[in-house]
Structures are given as C-alpha cells and as structure tokens.
Amino acid sequence: MFNILVSDPISDFGLQQLMDAEDVEVTKATGLSEEELVAIIPAYDALLVRSQTKVTRALLEAGVRLQVVGRAGVGVDNIDLDAATSWGIIVVNAPDGNTVTTCEHAFAMMMALARHIPQAYAKTAGGQWDRKAFLGVELRNKTLGVLGLGRIGIEVAKRAAAFGMKVIGYDPFLLEERANKLGIRLTDVDTIVRTADFITVHTPLTEETRHMLAKPQFDVMKRGMRIINCARGGIIDETALLEALDKGILAGAAFDVFEQEPPPPEHPFLNHPQIIVTPHLGASTLEAQENVAIDVSEQVIHILRQEPFKNAVNMPLVPSELFNRLQPWFALCQQLGKSLAQMTDGAVREVRIESAGELAELDTSILFPYVLKGVLSHHLGAGQVNVVNAMHLAKLRDIQLSVSKSMFSGTASSEVTLVLKTTVEERWVTGSYVPGVGGRLVRIGPYPVELLPEGYVLIISQQDKPGIIGRVGTLLGGSGINIATMQVGRNEVGGSAVMILKIDKKTPEHTMEALLAMPEIKRVREISFAE
Ligand SMILES: NC(=O)c1ccc[n+]([C@@H]2O[C@H](COP(=O)([O-])OP(=O)(O)OC[C@H]3O[C@@H](n4cnc5c(N)ncnc54)[C@H](O)[C@@H]3O)[C@@H](O)[C@H]2O)c1
Ligand SMILES: O=C(O)CC[C@@H](O)C(=O)O
C-alpha cells in the first residue's frame, strides 16, 4: 500500500484516481507547519503540494519513505530541488494544465489596467458615480511586450493579436521562425522597455530573471507604460516599480505575485491607486485545478508503481517522441547495468553506451539514469539509487559517461552494448529489444547468448577441455540446482571457453567453492537479476 500525503488544497475531482486506486491510501492534511509536516512525513511514499507547502531540505530528509513530490502546477520554487535530487526523490509537476487559465488571468489584468475596472468598481460600489476619473485606453494598435515566450507567454501573444495589438517579445529559447508564425517580433529587453505600451512577464524566477525589470529599465522606459506580472514575484523589482509610478513613468501595474507571499499588510502595493493586485490567482479556475490535479496524480501513481513517467523536474527534460521511442529500453538498460556490475571487479571508472540499428539515431544519453541505477545499485545498495539520483551519484564518484554508435550501427536490429571500465578491467554486454517479446541479452562480451534478464545466470570461464561441461552439470545437480538453458563458446579449440548457464535458483557458497576448485575453471560469476 502506498501512502500519499496531500498537504495543500488540491481538486478532489483531480485526486479521484488516487482515491479509487486499491494500492493507495490518500491523507489530506492542509495548513500544517514545517514542524508538523516533518513529524508525519516518515509514513508517506508521496507528497502532493501546490505552492503553499514549502518542501524544505528538512522535510525531504525526514521523508525516509518518500519517492516522489508532485506539484499540482508549474512553478517548483517552493521545493528544494537539490535536496530532493540528492535524496533520490523525484519531483514532478503538471506544466500544461494551467497554461490557458493563467494566460486569461494575465489578459484580464491587462484589460482591468487599461480600463481601471477594480478602482472604478470600488468607487461605484462605495456610492460615488465618478465617470471622469477613469478614462481608459484601448488595447487596439498598442504594442505589447512579452518577456518569456513559453507556454503562457505564447498564449497571451495569440490573444493580443486578436485584440489588434502588435506583439514584440524576448525569449532566448524561442526560434525566430516559430515567432514569425505566431506574429511575434523577437527583440531584446531594452527595445521592449523603450517601445512597448504594455509589458507582461512570463518567465520563471531564476538568477537571470530576478529583477529583470529594475531601475535601469524603468529609467529608459516609454512613458505611460503599464506592466503585468502573473509569473513570479521578484522578476520585477517592486521598489523600483513604485519609484517609476511616483515619477509618472508608469501609468499602472497589475500584480498577481509578490516577492513575499502573502505580502505583509503594510506592503505599498496593497492600497496604491494605480496598482491592481490579486492573491496569486493565476491558476485558480475550476478547469485548471482539475487538470493539474489529474496530471500530477497520474505521474505520482506511475512513479510509485515503477512505471514510466514524464515531467520529472529534477531529471533531464526528454521530448515526448524521444521518450516514447526509448522507453522500452529503460528496463533492459537497468538490467544490463546490473549484470555488468556483477561481472566486473574493481571500482567503476567509465560507462559507455554503444548503440546500433535505429537506436543509434536517437539520443541514447537519456538511458544513463537507468544504466547507472543498475550499475550503482549493486555497489551502493538497491534502496540507495534511483533514476533521479543515479547521475548525481555517478558525478560524485567521477565516473565518466559517454555514448557512441557501435561498429555494427548499420545493422537493421537495434541493440545496445554497455561497456563498463573499472580500475582493473573492461567488460561489456549487449541487449536487444523486440516489440511484443521484450528485452533480452544477446551477447556477453564476444559470446552470443539468448537470455531473458530474470532469475540467475552462472558465467563460468574455463579452459576448453573435454568432460568439463559434464562435471559442472553433475556438481550443480548434486546441489539441487536445475539448469534451464546452457550456452557455450570458445575462442579456439583447447583455448579459452565460457559456459553460460541459466539456473533456477541461487548457487550455494559451497558449490561456488567446488566449481572454483576445479583446476580448468578460471572464474565463476553468478548474476542475479532479482531485485
Ligand atoms: N500566477 C500563477 O498562478 C501562475 C500559474 C502558472 C504559471 N505561473 C508562472 O508563469 C511563468 C511561466 O510559466 P510557463 O508555464 O509559461 O513556463 P514555460 O517554462 O513554458 O515558459 C517560460 C519561458 O521563459 C523563458 N525564459 C527563461 N529565462 C528567460 C529570460 N531571462 N528572458 C526571457 N525569457 C526567459 C523560457 O525560455 C521559457 O520559454 C512561470 O514563472 C510559472 O511559475 C504562474
Ligand atoms: O497552485 C497555485 O495556485 C499556483 C500555481 C502557479 O503559480 C504555478 O506555478 O503553477
């Protein structure tokens, strides 16, 4: 049974699939302090949050069973990602579910700013009929500057075009061709602040975007500008913005997010006549809350059940087409890593993925977390390594990683060869994946095999001499070990030979010793594919 703690208000409709799952127990406990959360978290396998819960290092450290933190929304700035990664805890978010909702909020803010709607409402509701104080401006023919053209920024730009606005924008990752198709003219921040009538920000808060609009930008800003922030507090310097309003540079500002949330009651934005504020409502619609809760619940249940998942924030971002093509190889790569770790002596120094066939055309570095999970679990213990911290653990140990096409990359069938170099030797295994059949080992070193990665395999290196196979069979039979399959290979008659035996159970210590005591046998390794 998986225990899931939901520590922020998350849509019940979205959580339904978790509540219906037979292997899941959901506990809702919102509004707890960090101390209270730390006290209860050891009992949970997953934690689901929105933006209120601060998922701190102390909380993650106390979560001894925690496998995943799910964020019902986009921003993960309330989660200590470094701590989660080092504890091997996967962080997933729901990046798409609230895009349109947040875009619509930004647009509502822009329209409210243009027509002073909140101020006019307050005065009218207060009994004053004042039609002169609220002369607005049209959006039509105005220039909108969009800083950050990701999911939300692009939706805002599309709607602005429908309102007859000219859209200019800045995003280091948006290609000119795509921008042109969307009718957005890409330019730089300086041009935007000097020429736009409205600016809306839609970037994450990072070291680079913190105070992206600050005194130097306000000093050169077009007079009468209106500014909207429905992204993250801190992207716009609040003090510099107030100064710009006082100097008459700005005509108004609309903020959904603040450097400190909630802002203290004396915060100057809260009763400023030219500033519209909302309490971080960007994602607050019925639809968005259901969407993000459904998305994040799906991810969390996949992770707990060890099924493939997307949207991990503390793992490399994999485009979904690439993910779908590589996904069948994940389990096999882990098993290849596991088998090689058991075959080699010495400390791991280098891991290389060589690919052949169609696989060689893909970015196979995505397979490293799975390969490394297999390799490092053998050395560090299964519970210590997962696909989130495997790369981090490899880096800490200075293990070199590389990918290449194998010599046989022109072959029709896809194969992956994993090469492990340690301080004392280098060995390799090759696996192949057949749709409908699954993954299997097709070569151990130079020797062809046909092995499903399950149960136990004995690899015996010996001198090629008559009678050895029979003596090994007798010895194993005497220990009650059934041989399911046997494959043999040799480099030359009378030279080095290898016996690869699929056996039904683990070989007892005394049988291993008896095998090694045979003078022709040079090395015996047992590979266990069991967890
Ligand atoms: N108010 C709310 O309730 C609410 C709801 C959802 C999202 N958000 C916030 O909105 C923001 C945007 O969300 P999204 O889903 O569009 O994210 P996204 O990742 O799709 O887009 C962010 C874009 O910002 C760009 N960017 C990064 N650094 C930049 C820089 N220095 N200059 C210009 N562009 C830069 C990125 O290239 C990316 O295209 C995030 O901060 C998110 O947390 C707020
Ligand atoms: O949970 C919320 O309502 C805030 C969501 C929003 O800020 C986000 O980043 O997705």
TrEMBL record:
<dbReference type="GO" id="GO:0004617">
    <property type="term" value="F:phosphoglycerate dehydrogenase activity"/>
</dbReference>
<keyword id="KW-0560">Oxidoreductase</keyword>
<dbReference type="InterPro" id="IPR036291">
    <property type="entry name" value="NAD(P)-bd_dom_sf"/>
</dbReference>
<dbReference type="GO" id="GO:0006564">
    <property type="term" value="P:L-serine biosynthetic process"/>
</dbReference>
<dbReference type="Pfam" id="PF00389">
    <property type="entry name" value="2-Hacid_dh"/>
</dbReference>
<keyword id="KW-0718">Serine biosynthesis</keyword>
<dbReference type="InterPro" id="IPR029752">
    <property type="entry name" value="D-isomer_DH_CS1"/>
</dbReference>
<dbReference type="Pfam" id="PF19304">
    <property type="entry name" value="PGDH_inter"/>
</dbReference>
<dbReference type="InterPro" id="IPR006236">
    <property type="entry name" value="PGDH"/>
</dbReference>
<dbReference type="Pfam" id="PF02826">
    <property type="entry name" value="2-Hacid_dh_C"/>
</dbReference>
<dbReference type="GO" id="GO:0051287">
    <property type="term" value="F:NAD binding"/>
</dbReference>
<dbReference type="Pfam" id="PF01842">
    <property type="entry name" value="ACT"/>
</dbReference>
<keyword id="KW-0520">NAD</keyword>
<protein>
    <recommendedName>
        <fullName>D-3-phosphoglycerate dehydrogenase</fullName>
        <ecNumber>1.1.1.95</ecNumber>
    </recommendedName>
</protein>
<dbReference type="InterPro" id="IPR045865">
    <property type="entry name" value="ACT-like_dom_sf"/>
</dbReference>
<feature type="domain" description="ACT">
    <location>
        <begin position="457"/>
        <end position="529"/>
    </location>
</feature>
<comment type="pathway">
    <text>Amino-acid biosynthesis; L-serine biosynthesis; L-serine from 3-phospho-D-glycerate: step 1/3.</text>
</comment>
<dbReference type="InterPro" id="IPR006140">
    <property type="entry name" value="D-isomer_DH_NAD-bd"/>
</dbReference>
<comment type="similarity">
    <text>Belongs to the D-isomer specific 2-hydroxyacid dehydrogenase family.</text>
</comment>
<dbReference type="InterPro" id="IPR050857">
    <property type="entry name" value="D-2-hydroxyacid_DH"/>
</dbReference>
<dbReference type="InterPro" id="IPR002912">
    <property type="entry name" value="ACT_dom"/>
</dbReference>
<dbReference type="InterPro" id="IPR006139">
    <property type="entry name" value="D-isomer_2_OHA_DH_cat_dom"/>
</dbReference>
<dbReference type="InterPro" id="IPR045626">
    <property type="entry name" value="PGDH_ASB_dom"/>
</dbReference>
<comment type="function">
    <text>Catalyzes the reversible oxidation of 3-phospho-D-glycerate to 3-phosphonooxypyruvate, the first step of the phosphorylated L-serine biosynthesis pathway. Also catalyzes the reversible oxidation of 2-hydroxyglutarate to 2-oxoglutarate.</text>
</comment>
<keyword id="KW-0028">Amino-acid biosynthesis</keyword>
<dbReference type="InterPro" id="IPR029753">
    <property type="entry name" value="D-isomer_DH_CS"/>
</dbReference>
<dbReference type="InterPro" id="IPR029009">
    <property type="entry name" value="ASB_dom_sf"/>
</dbReference>
